[in-house]
Design brief:
Layout (H helix, E strand, L loop, with lengths): L12 H11 L4 H20 L4 H8 L6 H15 L3 H21 L4 H11 L5 H20 L3 H9 L4 H13 L2 H30 L11 H15 L9
Helix pairs in contact: 1-2, 2-4, 2-7, 4-5, 7-9, 8-10, 9-10, 10-11
Length: 240
């Protein structure tokens, strides 16, 4: 269940985006994270290869994680029908990584293990932006929950499980009044999840060949909702 369109008061662009996510049945934190990721990849695809600050950061070890390496190449292809900037940036990362790996080949096993553990973190700037957006969205939602309309929308809205954990943790660490109102929001969310689990069990019960005709649209919808619950709200198409 989501809030009726246009019912949530919003004072700025960030609040408008969060409101739209809830009103459209999307996890608002997923939406904020995806918007930030899209913006970061778009900027890198356009100007990353000539950004001196970014290139300097790469010389210090900044790189790209697997999903955002692919995302960068797709973004550039979408914008320019080329992947030249992606190749330039990944070349800079590879040269740095290759130099490190060559040095490691002559080190003892202990030094190799420690260095490789450090290399496991790609220090991806897109991941950094995404994490910042998540934290900002959680902080804003903590404040917005003081409004009854927002509180009701957060209680009934579709929030993925990972971000529900994050919101719960933020509320638990917040002032008493924040924790008190989020206790009510979380009680509503738990009731929503309990209803989802019940419908999923019914869906599973009706999944045998002799009972498939009993599957309802609500049970089909619950199956899709469970995927979003654990996998997050799917990234939405953007044409801007």
């Amino acid at each position: 269940m989501s809030a009726p369109p246009g019912n949530l008061p919003a004072r700025d662009f960030e609040e408008i985006r969060l409101a739209e996510a809830l009103e459209r049945g999307r996890c608002p934190v997923c939406d904020a994270r995806q918007e930030s990721t899209y913006a970061a990849l778009r900027g890198l695809a356009r100007e990353g290869a000539t950004d001196r600050s970014l290139r300097a950061d790469m010389d210090k070890g900044v790189g790209f994680c697997q999903p955002h390496s692919v995302g960068l190449s797709k973004m550039e292809l979408l914008q320019t029908s080329s992947q030249l900037a992606t190749a330039v940036l990944l070349d800079a990362v590879l040269r740095r990584r290759l130099a490190t790996l060559k040095k490691l080949s002559g080190a003892d096993s202990g030094a190799q293990g420690r260095a490789l553990a450090g290399l496991a973190d790609p220090k991806c700037p897109v991941c950094t932006r995404s994490a910042e957006a998540s934290r900002a969205a959680v902080s804003r939602l903590m404040a917005l929950s003081a409004d009854p309309a927002w509180s009701a929308a957060l209680g009934s809205g579709e929030i993925c499980l990972s971000d529900l954990y994050g919101l719960w943790a933020a509320a638990a660490d917040g002032p008493k009044e924040v924790h008190a109102r989020w206790s009510q929001i979380l009680a509503s969310q738990l009731a929503r999840l309990e209803g989802l689990q019940t419908t999923l069990a019914e869906y599973a019960h009706n999944s045998t060949s002799d009972r498939r005709h009993l599957i309802t649209p609500e049970q089909h919808a619950a199956g899709a909702a469970s995927i979003r619950l654990f996998g997050g709200t799917p990234d939405r198409d953007r044409a801007r």
